[in-house]
Amino acid sequence: MRNLNSASGPSVPQSATKPFIDVLSGQRQTIPPLWMMRQAGRYLPEYREVRAKAGGFLDLCFNPELAAEVTLQPIRRFGFDAAIIFSDILVIPHALGRAVRFEVGEGPRLEPLDDPAKVGALAAQADFGTLQPVFEALRMVRGALDPKVALIGFCGAPWTVATYMVAGHGTPDQAPARMMAYRHPEAFAKIIDVLVENSIHYLLAQLEAGANALQIFDTWAGVLPPAEFARWSTEPTRRIVEGVRAKVPDAKIIGFPRGSGAQLPGYVEATGVNAVSMDWTAEPAFIRERVQSRVAVQGNLDPLVLITGGAALDRAVDNVLANFSQGRFIFNLGHGIQPETPIAHVEQMIKRVRG
Fold it and tell me: Could you confirm whether 38 is annotated as catalytic?
């Protein structure tokens, strides 16, 4: 493994400010800051090399040196404006004593929390000792990053994490969690409450370890009807933001309620996030008028056009910039980069964004 501080690829200019944080603080940047969700991942040969050494996926997440190394790989190669710590949204269930494993080609597997009796036995307090490797990795990355590059910590939103905990795996429409929330709302609310409280402590510990900003990933928010979206996505996120800011008043927090569409303005108003991330289906005029007029926005290139490359990628990048770069904006994908994405296409995107 190369030294954590070694560099190859684009150099990042020294600066006392971080463009990514400046946008979250309300300052529009002429050239929008740029990073990618899942930027440390399987599309990079250097990641695959470390991943093969690590053993299981959680072994990689909980090895501070290896997690720091893969967090820094895309920064070295591409010179992004932000690094996001390499971890997973399911480390909180793991720290709550729920068995979590990752099957190759199948995604996460957990013991299902699928009836009220099982929920009654759910631990209230996570064992944060098991998460110390994440905090150590954050400290290592912070020490290795150029001062201009921001470091992002994150957690899964309670709704999305609960969908995996209830079903025991991902499902196309998260029906098991939705049904449990309808049938047993009190039991489901207990899962959410436990996740809210432990997520607050987890995010605060990430800030203490060196994160400059936080993102709350609500990947499955878009499957919820409006009333349930307000109850199970917006309100728990609001409580997390409030809980973090009770200790760190100026904490910079991005929400990503994927697929939420017309719910975004209400989500922004209720949660108090500094920015929202948009998927590629977001309607640009609506976002500009109802969301970007109030907070920064982040997104929203379709990951499939990044795989496509060529003229289609140039047009798509130009379209995202035309839609959002006149306001507070962070360029990103509408969801995580896909493993089959050619590195040359990432380089093409960066060149196009930065002109």
Answer: yes
In DSSP terms, which residues pair with 257 in a beta bridge?
218
pLDDT band at 16 (very low <50, low <70, confident <90, very high): low
For the question of residue 258 being annotated catalytic, the response is no
Task: Report how far residue 355's alpha carbon sits from residue 353's, in angstroms, rounded to the nearest whole number.
Answer: 6
Spell out where 250-346 has E strands.
253-257, 275-277, 296-301, 329-333
Given 76, 77, 81, 164, the catalytic residue: 164
Largest pairwise CA distance in the chain: 57
Catalytic residue selected from 43, 51, 202, 302? 51
pLDDT digits (tens, 9 = 90+) for 206-238: 999 999 999 999 999 999 999 999 999 999 999
Catalytic residue of the set 22, 42, 48, 314: 42
Which residues fall within 8 angstroms of residue 223, CB to CB, at 6 or more apart?
173, 174, 178, 259
Q: Which pTM value belongs to this model?
A: 0.95
Q: What is the pLDDT of residues 23-45, one digit of tens each?
A: 999 999 999 999 999 999 999 99
259 to 133, 217, 218, 266, 287: CA distances (angstroms): 32, 12, 9, 14, 13
List the catalytic residue out of 43, 77, 81, 88. 88
Residue for token pair 């039991």: 187
**Pairing of β 82-84 and β 107-110:** unpaired
**CB burial string 287-303: b at 16+ within 10 A, e below:** beeebbeebbbbbbbbb
Nearest Cα to 215, choosing from 41, 320, 84, 62?
84
